[in-house]
Specification:
Elements: E1 21-26, E2 29-34, E3 41-43, E4 46-47, E5 51-54, E6 59-62, E7 65-68, H1 77-84, E8 86-88, E9 91-92, H2 94-108, H3 112-127, H4 138-154, H5 157-170, H6 176-185, H7 196-209, H8 216-229
Antiparallel strand pairs: 1-2, 2-5, 3-4, 3-6, 6-7, 8-9
Helix pairs in contact: 2-3, 2-4, 3-4, 4-5, 4-6, 5-7, 7-8
Length: 230
């Protein structure tokens, strides 16, 4: 966690270091490690020196951000197995899945700004998989749904741009249901900033030349979006 865009969870707080602290989550428990942050990390008002074991209900403070650890005690075997799956070298899958849940919960409560903060971490993770995850992977499906919903709720084209860039990074062919949801979101968005849409249009042409099946319907739809919104 930290202020940097490359963190799992990005916190917009000038009192927080770019890489402030790290949570180590295992079957044995949760350990919080301070990453030599400028203003320190505190657990129950005591500054963390190195690492500290956390307990359910512990109060954590980084800069102006305050949070409390909530240990889920009713995980099913399927959930535990899912948490152990990996989506990239040495990276556990629980963060994209859990951040996706936080985005959905924040949006359901009308907290769009909070959802956007979580979405930054989610987009960084999904863009970093670089082809190691299929577009129909449950984590990918959940992440894409969260971003399209966020684009619709916030009426900000930047989330659509990020969505296209994630598809480019992973060389994903957009699924029909995503395209339809995206069109619905664009009813409230006047334009799409950034280069993601153009990059994706070029990627589809390249994939087609390489022999991958790209439906003419998708090619035409992306071309239409490029003409209208880019």
């Amino acid at each position: 966690m930290g202020r940097g865009a490359d963190c799992w969870l990005t916190l917009n707080d000038d009192q927080i270091s770019r890489q402030h602290a790290r949570f180590h989550v295992t079957s044995e428990g949760v350990v919080l490690e301070d990453l030599d942050s400028r203003n320190g990390t505190f657990v129950n008002d005591r500054q963390v020196r190195g690492s500290v074991d956390l307990s359910d209900g512990d109060a954590i403070r980084m800069g102006k951000e305050r949070m409390r650890l909530n240990v889920e005690k009713s995980l099913t075997e399927d959930t535990v197995d899912q948490l152990r799956r990996t989506i990239g070298p040495s990276e556990q899958s629980q963060f994209p899945s859990l951040i996706g849940q936080l985005i959905e919960k924040s949006l359901s409560m009308g907290k769009v700004k909070e959802a956007e903060r979580y979405a930054l971490a989610l987009t960084n993770q999904l863009a970093g998989t670089r082809g190691s995850m299929a577009v129909d992977n449950p984590t990918a499906v959940s992440g894409i749904r969260c971003l399209t919903t966020l684009a619709e709720k916030s009426a900000k084209g930047e989330w659509v741009d990020r969505l296209f860039k994630i598809h480019v990074a992973n060389r994903w062919i957009m699924q029909d249901e995503v395209l339809e949801q995206l069109r619905g979101a664009l009813d409230r968005i006047p334009r799409i900033p950034g280069s993601g849409l153009g990059e994706y249009e070029r990627l589809l042409r390249q994939l087609s030349r390489e022999g991958q099946e790209v439906s003419p319907r998708l090619m035409a739809a992306i071309g239409e979006l490029a003409d209208t919104y880019a």
